[in-house]
Amino acid sequence: MRLFVSSLALTAASITLAQSLNFHLTSGANDNHFYRDEVTSAQVLLTSANVPTNLRRFVAALPAGNSGALTHFLPLNSTSPLTVTLVNGSLISTVDEFNNAGIQADLAFTNSATLGVTIIGAVRAMRDYVEGDGTMHQIFNYTLASFNATTIRFHRQNINLTMTASGNEAYKTADLYLSIPESSTAQLSVRPAESVISPPTVSILIPEDATNSILRLRFVTNETSPLGLDPADVFQSPTTARNAQLRQVLQGLADGSKLAAQQVSFLTFENKFTAGGWRFLTYFGRDSLIALRLLMPLLTQDANENALGAVIERANSTGALCHEETIGDYASFVNLQNGRGDLGNTPFYDYKMIDTDLLLLPALSHYFLDLPAGKNRAPQFLSRHTVLQNGTYAGILNRIANYNFARAVPFFINPAVSNLLAFRAGEPVGNWRDSNQGTGYGPIPFDVNTALVPASLRATQALIDAGILKPLSPLVIDGRVVNATAGDVAAVWEEKSISFFEVNVDRLTAERRLATFVEATGLSEQILRQSPTVHDRASFYALSLMPNGSPVQVLHSDLGFNLLYGNNVQKTFLQHAIDALTPYPRGLLTNVGMVVANPAYDSNRTNTGLLDRTAYHGTVIWSFQQALMAAGLSRQLNFCTPNNPPTVDENPPPVTRPTWCSDVEFMRQLRDAQTRLWASIEGAIGEIHTEVWSWSFDNGTNAFAVADLASLSGGTESDAIQLWSYGFLGLLNPGS
Fold first, then answer.
1. Helix (H/G/I), strand (E/B), else coil: 238
2. Structural domain containing residue 464
3. What is the rounded CA–CA span in Å between residue 13 and residue 259?
4. What domain count does the chain have?
């Protein structure tokens, strides 16, 4: 059995100081450089030299205030190609007056360039610009603070006043410096703007035949840099492993010699995990909890409990959980937009997602009840007092449990579409497919209703039975006390919710729709011969439901949630999983990964374009979705033959062995599906820790190849490192 590792183009410096990191990787069209020391933590991104474009982008992103800078370099002479590269060894931390700290890098230019669009201050504002067709609010404009022949200072005074330690009022600031080092032959030319809404004209002049044309960029801010975790703070030592499989996957993690360990370390901090870089270097509850569920057996007790605590700390007064924590200058902007400028840069917590609420209690149950590391830890953990609000973890957890129970009871009483969980009123998104078109505009998502609601209820009941949570408060609906346990309510959701999402398409219609889809997407007819034809019908579960209950007839990958979190997965569901894990476009599998959506069978042909290979949640590959599916299949199969093949995670089998375990032929089909999934995963092994990628198709070979999503979408791009994609560190390919 082989450990699953990444072959990303990656180099690293050895870790010599506590919490110091310095590594590089290439992903898509970008070179990504990561740096952390006792001063700062930063990611620097630069358009790769081998990408055929003259528009070169530079990004610096810091977890400190989720702040950074973005700028573009364009050739000064359109006939002269421009390449900009980072000078090896030049990436270092830098400090400035007024407690400003940040990152410094030297860039080598092949030809003269002019400065393009520049954004300074908030990473979220940078993200809005990149993904929002060039949208940027003028409140984020910078000023040309000073300049001369060798140095330019661009200054951003943040939106709101803050109080200094001495009690004086002061502004948070962010500055981007462009300067020419003494040994460089480059020169700067600046023409100030003619109006307050126009940027200055800045040129980097490179003499002909120059050999050392260097521009130095420094970004500094007086936001506080959070304290990062060492790999040894995150991962258990192999010496503590309870079995050979865990010992195997832990090799090289705690000591940081495995590059993936350094990447995870870069995203983890004492008070929170961050989601990914560069675009999401802040707290996201869903990302933390899914990553935690996959990585939990590998993590130290402190890392597990700090990550769980970060989620609890950010719960609101109703029991809903925070999706995204907005900090720094962008928090000031959001507060102003909400008519609460008086809050200044107080963090803004977003509670619009309905899936995040349901992921915490299953994670807690798995840690405290299933994993040896969590046994007997609950009393100490629940007695903690919160930092971000008043109360104890125990009090907040009971609030969360009662909140989720109250939302689930109406369906228990009357299992109708109207009582399934839909996106919150006025919100177009609510689960992990958080783009408007991600669920085909259906506001009632499959994953939340069929997997996460019952999983949360089952976890609630298990934690109550173990004495970790208090019994649920009596619930009164229409003047009547609901006399039901969380387990009772879970059973109804498990039995009734799935039927609303069932889609059946007769054979002739299914084949006709497949042929139309293949033609519309530029695939070859030959590709349909790579998997068996539909027999009597195509059966699958809808991606979502429209408000009237009609299904969005899109085949999808969210079955992985049911496999990983579900307690009573039925044979019919597993058959749908087997059917989904067949070659695309009949199923989800390509030779470079599993696509997360497939509208080939959809009667609504507009979804062919809506969910295509350029769409963020379309026929593209998300690494974490593959990890969920792989981990979930392993979990279900081990319910039949515990630890055969061996696994890293601990998943105690149900009291009653599933009846489908005795069906030898069905078990063979399920294991074959698992083999096909892993073959698909390994086809893009070099992308496995990135966020998302797309594909191109060769009609001659009928094979897919990895394609950079950003180059296809014209905006939406993939993070080079993504927290939940590291779930693969704890997965073993059973066929190797």
1. helix
2. 231-244+280-496
3. 10
4. 2
- Identify whether 697 is part of a domain: no
Model pLDDT for residues 229-257, shown as the tens digit of each residue: 999 999 999 999 988 999 999 999 999 99
Question: Where does a domain end: 445, 465, 496?
Answer: 496
- Indicate if 448 and 486 belong to the same structural domain: yes
Question: Are 172 and 222 spatial neighbours (Cβ–Cβ below 8 Å)?
Answer: yes
Contact, 343 vs 419, CB < 8 A?
no
Tell me the pairing of strands 555-556 and 597-598. antiparallel
With H, G, I as helix, E, B as strand and everything else as coil, classify residue 632: helix
| Contact call for residues 689 and 722 (beta carbons, < 8 A) | yes
Compute how many other C-beta atoms are within 10 angstroms of the C-beta atom of residue 669.
Answer: 15
Q: Tens of pLDDT along 286-308?
A: 999 999 999 999 999 999 999 99
DSSP 210: -
Same domain for 320 and 201, yes or no, is no
Residues 384 and 440 grouped into a single domain? yes
Query: In whole numbers, what is the pLDDT of the chain averaged over residues?
Result: 93
User: Could you please report the per-residue DSSP string of 517-574?
Assistant: HHHHTT--GGGGGGSPPPSSEEEEE-SEE-TTS-EE--EESTHHHHHHH-SS--HHHH
Domain assignment present for residue 64? The answer is yes
Q: CA-to-CA distance for 658 and 654, rounded, in angstroms?
A: 8
On whether residue 520 sits in a domain, the answer given is no
Residues 299 and 175 in one domain: no
- Same structural domain, 239 and 201: no
Structure-token pair, residue 176: 């981007």
Do residues 203 and 298 share a domain? no
Residue 118 in contact with residue 71, Cβ under 8 Å?
Answer: yes
Sign of CA dihedral 120, 221, 179, 26: negative
Higher pLDDT, 11 or 706: 706
Task: Please check whether residues 240 and 303 belong to one and the same domain.
Answer: yes
pLDDT in tens, 81-127: 899 999 999 999 999 877 799 999 999 999 999 999 999 999 999 99
Residues 440 and 610: beta-carbon distance below 8 Å: yes
Residues 286, 170: one domain? Answer: no
Q: Which amino acid is at 586?
A: R
